[in-house]
Specification:
The complex is a heterodimer of chains A (146) and B (392). Chain A has 146 residues and is α/β, with parallel strands linked by helices. Chain A has a single domain, classed as Phosphohistidine domain (Glucose Oxidase, domain 1), CATH 3.50.30.10. Chain A has five helices and seven strands. In chain A, helix 4 links the parallel strand 4 and strand 5. In chain A, helix 3 packs parallel to helix 4. In chain B, the strands form four sheets. In chain B, strands 13-12-11-14-15 form a five-stranded parallel sheet, sandwiched between helices. Chain B is globular. Chain B is built from 16 helices and 15 strands. Classes of the chains: A alpha/beta (146), B alpha/beta (392). The interface between A and B is medium-sized, with 21 and 21 residues.
């Protein structure tokens, strides 16, 4: 009980996560958090923004306007273009937070004007819960939990 | 990462939104991989050309860019022969989208020559020690290993960014310390032709993203090195390899302690393997030229096709430039009924999808066709690929 209270207090106390700027700009939205990597090609329907990958933790969830928090990108490099298509269709996430950025998602976020931060301290996936209201500053590399 | 004043100003948007984005891509990748600065590149080779691979998403992005490339830049193969697409069986809708992609690149000043063998069409694009921003995996391997130039495995957008800025981030294979061999392969038999593609299938799977060094009993031609590197980039993520006494040295090169022996039997097994999907089909398409054939390979095909009609439909893929420079060879090949297609290949064209099983002399096509085309594949030597009806 004691430990739980401490962990809870710690979480409440952390309002700002310091990270590394990946893609510039600021955005705010509701967090959607997963422990699984995301491939934008084939896993997210560019017309609806819904995750369609079978068996993915986020299957059936809509990423539109969300602050999407996931460990890293995976899969085809065409994923960068798919992020651009999401943006043009109005179905893109508002911002992206990765544990460790790789080129597919980093490049996709940059060309699509989606603010992105990675390597936050403390770790974003451990700290942010789905449904939290989050503000991402991709220029400074900061994440505020509101 | 250290940026010059000029680079900073581009990053702040002083040179317009396209260059700002291009600079953001280069500096962010540099930061991710720990680069110290940007370095000038001699040329760019840009992937993300076939409509089959990039789709409407890619077409939209390229069409929205504005600017002009500042270093010689050429394209990866497209999804079809830009002129003879109907003969390949490509439909009009695909052809129109493909033409739009090519046009969007042309508008940016990219030379719309679509090939995975840029080193055959212009020697100025890459020489020993040059820094490049190339993105086709077999071309990268050839440039790094056979030419002794230096390039990372760029993605389509980062290669195009490098073309627009004229620079790339200084990390990875641009640096001596990442070009040292990490894993040795000793091959205990003589190799010829498609054996090198088969060896590449085996070695790439074991090397992953390491830097293999080979000790061989035969001296490979450059075309055989091309096949070896292409297969390793498909079965693994090999971007650079060395062959003892053959490939140019750049920096420290000792045969690695960790060494794997490869025997004849293992090479033969690759030829017997089949596509791994158990497609159950007899090959109904012979597809050669992955990577694109050189003039000497076209000549060998022409010789093997003399006086007979091949038993199956045959496509031989090469670059437009090599085809146009060798009209006599092309005529001899096409007189047999085989087709010489340019600008494209069996891996990136949707035209391959209608076949049941592809017979190829390429380790790379053998690895990629089943996954990217949903079609079976077998690898064989070129003389078997081009045999006539009665030679079975």
């Amino acid at each position: 009980m004691h430990t739980l209270t401490n962990a809870w207090q710690e979480r409440i106390a952390i309002r700002t996560l310091k990270g590394r700027p990946i893609s510039r700009g600021q955005a705010e939205g509701e967090a959607l958090v997963t422990n699984q990597s995301i491939s934008f090609l084939g896993s997210i329907d560019p017309d609806t923004g819904v995750v369609v990958e079978k068996g993915h933790e986020l299957e059936g969830k809509d990423v539109t306007g969300k602050v999407l928090v996931f460990p890293s990108g995976k899969g085809s490099t065409v994923g960068s273009y798919v992020m651009y298509q999401l943006k043009k269709n109005g179905t893109a996430p508002a911002a992206v937070i990765n544990r460790s950025a790789e080129p597919i998602v980093a490049v996709g976020a940059i060309i699509s004007d989606i603010p992105m931060v990675d390597s936050t301290e403390p770790d974003a996936i451990d700290t942010i819960r789905t449904g939290d209201r989050v503000r991402v500053d991709g220029t400074r590399g900061a994440v505020d939990i509101l | 990462m250290h940026l010059t004043q000029e680079e900073e100003s581009v990053l702040e948007g002083d040179s317009g939104p396209t260059l700002k984005k291009a600079m953001e891509i280069l500096t962010t990748l540099g930061d991710i991989y720990g680069a110290d600065s940007l370095i000038p590149v001699k040329s760019a080779q840009i992937a993300g050309v076939s409509y089959k691979t990039i789709g409407d998403a890619g077409l939209e992005w390229i069409s929205d860019l504005e600017g002009t490339v500042v270093v010689p830049s050429i394209l990866n193969p497209a999804g079809m022969d830009l002129e003879r697409w109907q003969e390949m069986g490509v439909d009009a809708k695909f052809a129109s989208k493909q033409a739009s992609i090519i046009e969007a690149y042309r508008r940016l000043g990219v030379r719309c020559e679509c090939t995975c063998t840029p080193y055959y069409i212009d020697k100025e694009l890459a020489a020993f020690g040059d820094h490049l921003a190339w993105s086709e995996s077999s071309a990268i391997s050839y440039a790094n290993s056979v030419i002794g130039a230096r390039t990372n495995r760029e993605g389509g957008p980062s290669a195009l960014s490098a073309a627009l800025i004229g620079k790339t981030a200084n990390y990875g294979y641009h640096l001596d310390e990442n070009r040292i061999p990490t894993i040795g392969f000793e091959v205990d038999c003589k190799l010829k032709g498609a054996d090198y593609g088969a060896l590449g299938c085996l070695a790439g799977a074991q090397a992953g993203s390491g830097v293999p060094m080979f000790r061989l009993r035969s001296k490979p031609y450059d075309t055989e090195l091309k096949a070896l590197g292409a297969a390793m980039a498909a079965s693994g993520a090999v971007a650079l390899y060395h062959v003892e006494g053959v490939t140019p040295k750049s920096g420290h090169q000792e045969f690695p302690d960790e060494t794997i022996i490869i025997e004849r039997r293992q090479i033969d097994d690759v030829f017997d393997e089949g596509c791994g999907k158990e497609c159950g089909n007899e090959p109904d398409l012979v597809a050669l030229g992955c990577p694109h054939y050189s003039a000497s390979e076209l000549e060998e095909a022409a010789r093997l096709l003399e006086d007979h009609t091949p038993a199956k439909e045959v496509w031989i893929c090469t670059s437009r430039r090599v085809r146009d420079a060798n009209p006599g060879l092309v005529r001899r090949i096409e007189d047999s009924g085989a087709k010489v297609f340019v600008d494209t290949c069996m891996v990136v064209s949707p035209a391959t999808d209608r076949f049941g099983c592809v017979l190829t002399d390429s380790g790379k096509a053998f690895k990629y066709v089943p996954n990217l085309c949903g079609v079976g594949a077998r690898i064989a030597h070129i003389n078997e690929c081009l045999a006539g009806e009665d030679s079975d």
